[in-house]
Amino acid sequence: MNLPERADACLAALDDAGRAIARRVVLRLIRFGDGPSAHRTQPVSALRAGEEPERLAQILRHLAAGELVALDGDAASDDANVALADPALVTAWPALRAWIKAHRQAEPLRRQLETDAADWSQRTARGDRDVELLDKAQLGELGAWLTDDTRRDLGVSATAESFLAASRAAARKQWWPGKTTMSTALVLLMMLLILATPIILLLIVVLTASVIHKFL
Description:
Elements: H1 3-12, H2 16-27, E1 30-31, E2 38-39, E3 42-43, H3 44-47, H4 53-65, E4 69-72, E5 81-84, H5 89-92, H6 94-103, H7 106-126, H8 136-145, H9 148-154, H10 158-175, H11 179-215
Antiparallel strand pairs: 1-2, 3-5, 4-5
C-alpha cells in the first residue's frame, strides 16, 4: 500500500467526527507559504483549539498508529510534540493537497489575527487605553475568508476569538449612535417641528379656504 492509500485508509477507519478532527490536526501541522507548503512540529496544546482533549488524544493515537503523524510523548500531554510522519504527504496525498488549497488564502489572515490578538491581550493586561481593534473593513475581510468552519479547521486561539468579539462589539458601537448623539438628534427634530408648525398651519388654512371657496 503506497503512502496516499495508507493515509486514506487511516482516515476511512474513523467516523465522520473523527475524520473531521484528523483533518484539522493534519492542517495544523502545515506551514503555509507562497511556494509549496511545508510541515511543522506542533505541541498537542496547539492542536487542541476547540477540540475535546480526550477525543483529540484518541485521534492522535490513531493517526500515529496509521503512520500519518509522529507523536513524541503521550497524546494526552500538552507538551508532547506532533509532526507529519512523512513530509512527502504534503505533495503526495491528494486529500491533503486539496485541504491546503482550500485554506491557503485564510491561513495568512489567521496568523495576522493571532499576532494582533496577542498584542491586544498584552497591552490590555498592562492597562493601555489606546489599544487598536479591528475596523469594519478588516472584520469584513476576515469574515470572508476566516469563516467559522475555517477557523475551526486551522485552529484559532481563545485569545484571538476574544479579540474578534471585542472588535465586533466596538464596531457595533460605532454604527449605533450613542446617547449624546441621540439626544442631540431629538432636540433638533423638535426644533424643526416647532419651526415648521406655523407653515403647516398656514397650509391647512389655505387648503381649507380653497375647499370652502369651491363649494360657495
